[in-house]
Amino acid sequence: MSHSQPDALRSRLEAVSERVVRAAEEAGRDPSEVTTIVVTKFHPVELVRNLYDLGVRDFGESRHQEAREKAAALPADIRWHFVGQLQTKKARQVRTYAHSIHSVDRLQLVDALDGADDETEVFVQVDLSGEPGRGGAAPADVPEIARRVVSARGLRLAGVMAVAPLGEDAEPAFRRLREISDRVREIDPDARRISAGMSGDLESALKEGATHLRVGSAITGQRPTAP
Ligand SMILES: *Cc1c(COP(=O)(O)O)cnc(C)c1O
After folding, report:
1. How sure is the predictor about 225, in pLDDT bands with cuts at 50, 70 and 90?
2. 203 CB contacts (<8 Å, ≥6 apart)?
């Protein structure tokens, strides 16, 4: 598969890195404070390994079984970011390998994750579309979920996460996310991370304060269809 060859991956990785530096600087921000998570869902382990060899350490996955298999097959210094919709009954298993979970969007999920000895970082996922069902809490519900995370054992509130809604400019949507982030920081001043921005809209996200980008196809090449 030519798209996963190291040379092609390296040049796409560099191109995205240049976009990040340029957009961060235009926004008056320090590019070194931005984490780019490479989303490798549906891609084989070999592609992740090639990216690892190029120096990538932050990877995003959206399905528990696939993520667990990759985590078991690859070096332990990888930080796995779980970015997909998460079933309550699988929550505790995801904790075993995930450095952070970006998709916490309801109280039951916080309760399912509560009570571990080691610490997992969680983002409260916000639905910016107003159309329930695609993951994410309604903005009005975010403070309560954030407070529940803060009081849970073994969870650290990192901040907020969102996907830009379809059919709307990303920038005003990410601006709303930033306002929600401000409210979350009133609950926990350390929860200042914003996970937003993908291949097509990372510039808008950086403009509106994103600290964690989740970039897939711009780095990996076209995704295979879901297995
Ligand atoms: C797949 C996915 C991404 C990456 O999307 P690209 O458009 O390929 O960059 C980011 N975030 C989430 C939640 C995803 O599921």
Report:
1. confident
2. 19, 23, 26, 197
| 214 CB within 6 A, ligand 1 | yes
Read off the pTM.
0.96
pLDDT of 201 over the 90 cut:
yes
Q: Among the residues of 125-226, which ranges form H helices?
A: 142-151, 170-187, 202-207, 217-220
Q: Please tell me the predicted confidence (pLDDT) of residue 4.
A: 59
Distance of CA 147 from the midpoint of ligand 1 (Å): 27
